[in-house]
Amino acid sequence: MAVDAELDAELDAAPDGPSDVPVDARVDRPGDMAADLAADAAPDLPQDVALDGSPDAAPDMAPDVAVDMAPDAAPDMAPDAAPDMAEPDACRPVAELCNGADDDCDDLVDEDIRLGACATGLLGPCAAGRLQCVDAEAVCVGEVGPSAEVCDRVDNDCDGVSDETLDTRALGFVGGVGVPSRVSAAWTGTELATAWHANVDGSNHVFLTSMPLDGAAPDAAVDIGLGQRPSLDGAAGLAVAFERGQRVVFDIIDAVGDPIDPAQVWPDGGGEGQTHPSVAASEGVFAVGWVSGYLARLDGAGGLLGDPQLVPAQADADSVDVASKGGTSAVAWSEGGSARFAIIGANGEALLAPVVLAAGGSGAPKVVADDAGYAVFWPVGGDGLYGAWYETGGAERLAPRRVFGEVGDGYNDMTVAWGGAEYALAYTSNDLVVVMRLVFDDVPPAVPQVLFAGERPTIASTGSGNALFWWDRNGLNYRYGAVDCRP
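Structure (tokenized):
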């Protein structure tokens, strides 16, 4: 039994055996002694390494390797890589702004910046502008700048008036015999014929001459007889109609300025010695209208084409203006303060029965033939200038409409001409002679040009422009000159 006692003593002294295992169980297991001896023979192995060679050894080795390698590798690589990849002062491109900086990193400052449209505060085509970046600030710069005035209906120099500096000078006095009054003018295709009346020895005489447009002195005036308030037309040979007492005289003027006898005379005047005749011609047919609304039509030799006819329903028209195109005749008149209009055919028939253009408050209407028919204009007190357009057969081209607002003290002594591309209207307002030009469409007219201090203007087409005559208050005489550009 001594052996048993020795074994019990050795088991009690073993340091790595579990203390709670019964002695009897350990003694009965085979190989326990060999395990104890092996443990005593390898004292340097870590406490957690399995003695039987199981995978428990792997976790014990990994911590030792990580601790040895990480401190050496990480500090060596990170400090070298970071400075090479991102410079502290490198340009980071963004959209270019108006700030004096190169925002998009292209070595240019404030380039190609679109800031939108703006208003420059200037007139005409110079009004439109676009914001541009100038010295790091948004500045409104005009898209079109002022330029020299040219003949194009555009306010090239941006002063609010178009074509205003072109041939608007006064070219000379009219006449030479007495003081002219009530000038009328007509373009014959080669020259600007002019008629007026002047007092000679206590009586009014009608004079006729040709006016040059180059500033030269006019031809000597021809006295064609007693009369006043002449009206000229040069479309079918030069024709003149004028007052003589309470009668209307019509005559055709030959190439040397002499009347062709006998002249036509109509006895029915408008009372008080004023008939205010108006003459127009086309295709060898002359039309003469006068107060109180009569219209006479004549052939190219001056022979009547039927008796004069009363166009209004009653003979109470207080102003009459006529135009002619294609053998038809247009008549515009004022009746009881209302502007009225009619078109008469080649045989005297009504192509357009009298229509009321404006009921009450309107001034004397004026009619002119254009390329497609007739245009008629009339002022309405306190409201402005109106217009309407018709074909020669009477069909409406554009309904009556206001073409310009009220000006000064109104459209006084208005006269109108067609220049082949636009209409020219002359009138007086506040003792100033004004010219307005407009086209056949919805485009607003050009800004009216205030030209001279004067009154009683007359405007006539010269084939490529317009010529203006007016009473010069300063010189106490009529003057004339070209009023717009002539290409």
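The radius of gyration is 53 Å. Helices lie at 2-13, 23-28, 32-41, 57-85.
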